[in-house]
Design goal:
The protein has twelve helices and 21 strands. By secondary structure, the chain is of the alpha/beta class. It has two domains: 238 residues, Ribonuclease Z/Hydroxyacylglutathione hydrolase-like (Metallo-beta-lactamase, Chain A), CATH 3.60.15.10; 141 residues, Flavodoxin domain (Rossmann fold, 3-Layer(aba) Sandwich). Strand 7 and strand 8 form a beta hairpin. It binds MU-OXO-diiron. MU-OXO-diiron binds next to helix 2.
């Protein structure tokens, strides 16, 4: 697709990737995506982000259609994930005079991406860059979606380049929200859910930074450029990133898998113990659920307790499946615990404790094993274990 003007000598020069079906290994993209890069043709020429490496050839052609690449002065790298820096090296080949503008924390990522000498200008929150008739302002918005992310704002154009925020994996060559043929709002929401949801706290900070800006156009890193009812998009993000109301009473979720009913007996007793000190507890057999249906519930819970027998020296797959599904939600600072029925080796509970700690979940009570069929004494231990985890939740103030 050819480059096109968005407004006032600001051009889209990106790439369409309609047949992409999996992004970043984790996200299904049934409507493909676009890699949006923008060129600003002012007294000085600047480019915002590049495109995935496989599209470098056509990308360079786009640029040559608009400007003499030797005159490009700035390449603004808002985020160094390769879908936006994949063509940076190719661009530097034809734009040897360009300096790379990026967040301070991104300098090392840029260096490790291009693996060559280049001028790099690190910028901070509210740093400005004059292109002649317009001045760009940079907003530090870390963790949206890498630590390096920043946004760019042009006040005279009333346009915000928010990188991955307000993006969608949705490919339509008409490119504007008010000209594309299909409803892309589910994709807009899905992008938030999968890519940005773990960073709600950082999103809230970023939304405060853009609050005072007059924005008529949002030009994100993927998908449609937004220019219709801008406030609606911003309000969606405000609602999705908002702090949820405190759970009262505190809630514990217990996910267990049980081959012969022994781990299940432990789960029931742990639940009893936790309820005895006032926690609301829900139990789920991990073999009967789909983890993706539980993400919202898990994100809103205060305690996550996982039970697995040890089979072939490992935690069983349905429990691992839940744990590996949690990368897209924020569980840092919750209370976690582990338990399971063991036969002879019994590694599963320690693996679970270690995994929870690695996910920055607090593990205040060491995981609990019971040997084969839990005895009355072991079930009493389970009851006390449930109480102790629940008490840790009651005392805990989540970060
Ligand atoms: Fe589209 Fe986080 O890169």
């Amino acid at each position: 697709m050819k480059p096109f003007q968005i407004k006032n000598d600001i051009f889209w020069i990106g790439a369409l990737h309609p047949d992409l079906r999996l992004f970043d290994i984790i996200m299904r993209t049934k409507n493909g995506t676009t890699y949006n890069s923008y060129l600003i043709r002012d007294e000085k020429i600047a480019i915002i982000d590049t495109v995935k490496e496989k599209f470098a050839h056509q990308y360079i052609s786009h640029i040559k259609e608009l400007v003499d690449p030797g005159k490009i002065e700035y390449i603004i790298a808002q985020h160094t994930e390769p879908d936006h820096t994949g063509s940076l090296s190719s661009l530097l080949e034809i734009a040897p005079n360009a300096q790379i503008v990026c967040a301070k924390v991104a300098v090392k990522y840029v260096e490790n991406t291009i693996n060559r000498e280049a001028g790099i200008i690190p910028v901070e929150n509210n740093s400005t860059l004059s292109l002649g008739t317009r001045t760009l302002r940079f907003l530090s918005t870390p963790f949206l979606h890498w630590p390096d992310t920043m946004m760019t704002y042009s006040e005279s154009d009333e346009i915000l380049f928010p990188c991955d925020v307000f993006a969608s994996h949705f490919c339509d060559s008409r490119m504007f929200d008010d000209t594309i043929a299909r409803d892309f709002r589910p994709d807009f929401r899905q992008y938030f859910e999968v890519i940005l949801r773990p960073y709600k706290r950082h999103l809230r900070n970023a939304l405060k930074k853009i609050e005072p800006l007059t924005i008529k156009t949002i030009a994100p890193s993927h998908g449609p450029i937004l220019r219709k009812n801008i406030a609606d998009y911003i309000n969606c993000y405000k609602a999705w990133a908002a702090v949820k109301a405190e759970n009262k009473p505190k809630r514990m979720l217990i996910y267990y898998a049980s081959a012969h009913g022994n781990t299940e007996k432990m789960a029931n007793k742990i639940a009893e113990g936790a309820r005895s000190v006032g926690l609301e507890v829900e139990l789920f057999d991990a073999c009967t659920i789909h983890p993706e249906d539980h993400l919202e519930r898990i994100e809103n819970a205060d305690a996550l307790v996982f039970g697995s027998p040890t089979i072939n020296n490992d935690v069983v797959k349905p429990i691992w499946d839940i744990l590996t599904s949690l990368a897209t939600i924020d569980i840092k600072g919750k209370v976690g615990a582990s338990f399971g029925s063991v036969g002879w080796s019994g590694e599963a509970v320690q693996f679970l404790d270690d995994r929870l700690a690695a996910m920055k979940v607090k593990v205040p009570v060491k995981g609990l094993n019971a040997v084969l069929v839990p005895s009355e004494e072991e079930l009493a231990e389970c009851y006390t274990f449930g109480q102790n985890v629940a008490k840790a939740v009651a005392m805990d103030v989540k970060e």
